[in-house]
Structure formats: structure tokens, C-alpha cells
Amino acid sequence: MLEVEPQLIDAYVRTGKMRIIVRPLFQTGEDAVLAAHASECAGEQQHYFAMRAAIYADQGGLYAAETMNAGLSQRARNIGVNGDDFDRCMQSDKYRLPLLTEYTRAKDAGIVSRPVFEINGQRIIGARQFSEFADIIDHLTP
Amino acid sequence: MSSIRIIGISLFICILANCGRQSVGAPPATRWPSATVESSAATTINTTTTPIAGTSQPTVVGNTDDSLASGLTPEGYHVLGNMTAPITFVDYSDYF
Fold first, then answer.
1. Which of A18, B37, B73, B88 has the fewest CB atoms within 10 Å, i.e. is most exposed?
2. Is A107 inside any structural domain?
């Protein structure tokens, strides 16, 4: 999704044909939970998708940071998020339980691997090239 | 014997009455601690309690840096793009 999402955005989201809804999974452990939490905290300042893009764009850099929290905090600042508010949000841990609850809900809905996508309810399991998504989307687009 | 039966029936009715009161008065489940509260207050469209993101009407809460609309579904899922777009792409996403 790292490479494909920007293509989908350019081709279909910018043209008004498609909206993307993000539902979190945490199959890669605590770091993924922290990253999702960081996105929610950035979202409080209307930077959810910018934070998501920043995390995707520099995963190696995040792992190289002193701590995952420090790396996320720096990236939040880099995209214009108020750092103090972001750090308070992260320290509060307030999104952890809702996120984990959501993960449980997804598992209950049969989402047991990743990546998983749904296009107008049609479930697609596993990574796909842009062209494969485009075939499905073009078929559904009026 | 009949008084015991009356007491038993009364207890049964009392239990039933309390159960009904609890289910009617139970608050709706909320998912997110802050953002969802704003979103729920802002929209009156969704009345379903089933979290089906693809069929729920999202609420715009802002724009991304490159002017794409972003918002939240009534369930609190983040949405990017035209909230009434004909295609809904749900990404079950895991960082890393």
C-alpha cells in the first residue's frame, strides 16, 4: 500500500470518484499501535493523513530513532503538528483501548491477515498492483 | 404456599422491570475518546449501530495539506476524499 496508495489518491480520490477509509490493524505489535496512536493524535489537529503518510514514508527512520515515541513526535512536528499537544496526547494513551477494540472488531469480521481491502464491500485479501485495483474501481465507477 | 408464590411472582416481575429499564437507559457505545464525540455531534445522518464503514455517511472535519477533504465516519474511522464519492475503498491498515 506504501506505493499504491498515492497512485489511488491521484487517480480516484482527487477526481472525486473514491473515498478511502482507514481501519487499523496491529499485527506487527506495539510499534504499530504507537504509530496508529500517533496518527490519531495528529488527527486531533487535522493532520491524520499527513501523519500516516509521514510514517509510511520513513519507516526505517522511525526504527532508527532513539525510541519509537521520539521518532513519531519528531515526525509530527515536521508536518506542522503542535508538538506539545501531540506529546500530551501520546502520553495520555487515550486511543489505545479504542484502537485495540477496533482491531478485535476487525478480527471478528474475518480480517485475520494483512493487507485487506474492501471496494464497495468487495473484499480483497493480499497486496495488489495499482492496475488491479484500477480494474475493479473502473468497473464500479458510473 | 400461595404467599411464597406471590412473593416469587413479584420478584420475577421486579427483575423484568429492572432489566427493561437498564437496556433502555444504557448509553450508546462510543469508540474514540475525543474526536468521535465531535463527529457524532456534528452529524445526524447515521442511526445504525452496526459499524459498516462503507455505508455510513462521513463528516468532513478538515482538509489535508493538499486540499483533499478529510473527515470521520460516524464510527470514528478516518476518511480521505469526497464524502459522497460513489466508490468506497476501505484499507485495513497496519503500520510497518
1. B37
2. no
Three cell numbers, residue B8: 416469587
Range of the domain at A65: 26-96
pLDDT of the residue at A137: 96
The ipTM value here is 0.89
Measured distance CA(A75)–CA(A81) in Å, rounded: 9
Q: Is residue A130 part of a domain?
A: no
What is the nearest CA distance from A83 to chain B, expressed in angstroms? 18
pTM: 0.72
Inside any domain, residue A113: no
Residues of B within 8 A of A120 (CB-CB) are: 54, 87-88
Within-domain flag for A131: no
| Interface contacts A/B by beta carbons within 8 Å | 163
Interior angle at CA A18, CA A16 and CA A24, nearest 5: 135
